[in-house]
Amino acid sequence: MEGLNTLQRNAPPERTRFNLLGRSVALDRRVHAARGDLADLALAGTLFSAHYARAVPLTCVAAGAPILSAASPMAEAVSELLRGERFHALDVTTDWAWGFCGHDGYVGYIRRDALDVEEQPTHRVTARTAPLFSATDIKSPIADYWPQGALFTGETQGDFLACAEGFIHQRHAASMAEREPDWVAVAERHLGQPYVWGGRGYRGIDCSGLVQVALGQGGIAVPRDTDLQCEGIGTPIDSEARLRRGDLIFFTGHVGIMADGKTLLHANAHWMAVVKEPLADVVARLAVDHPNPIIARRRIGA
Is the domain covering 123-175 a CATH 2.30.30 domain? Predict the structure, then answer.
């Protein structure tokens, strides 16, 4: 990382030709990297900017790191990267990097010390939390704890997978090539985890983060925010159709997963945790402020 700015500063500029026809279009700044002084080169020809930059792929090496709305530790967390996930940096300073997440294109700022050179992960954590042991011994000191969904490059050593930072037990991880057969079961492993706005599983999770990480481990990539998920996940379910496990229920600013035909699994600010509760109870609670709380019902797959 120390050489990143030097390389960028000394390298000759890339001469990319493009034509901007007509006026710049209005883009969703959550998923299109553009700010007042800089924009992603991929937007050239679509959006006018004083400067463009080509993204540099880096890897999150912290167990988890927030994606923030501004370059300040006090800024609002808008999402989160887990260990091993990719971040495409467009601007890197001493303390911060600005760019977008590799898995969903979400734009924001992340601490520079949470990033390192690009890595090609081979495994992902499947346990709710995986201890990072200091040796191939379950009695050895634990260096850290990695959340479910964290990615790493591992090499088999007995019952463990050796990585740069330590050792993950094989029962706590799976090959990147493997997909979870029941993505709802992935979400259920988060039961009891605290509700944290912008979280995706490191010390906390929010409603759309729960949907995104669970589906992701099932091999289905989805957007980050509730409104984007409501517009782009699955197919609509008729209001009279019987609900089943895995159906998604959308409310204003909220989403939950049906654990069965009557029970909603969701990360929510009412209980400040990931819980299961009757869908009817959730509807009754929200009906105080919203006469028709459910705004959409969508089904993944057939």
Answer: yes
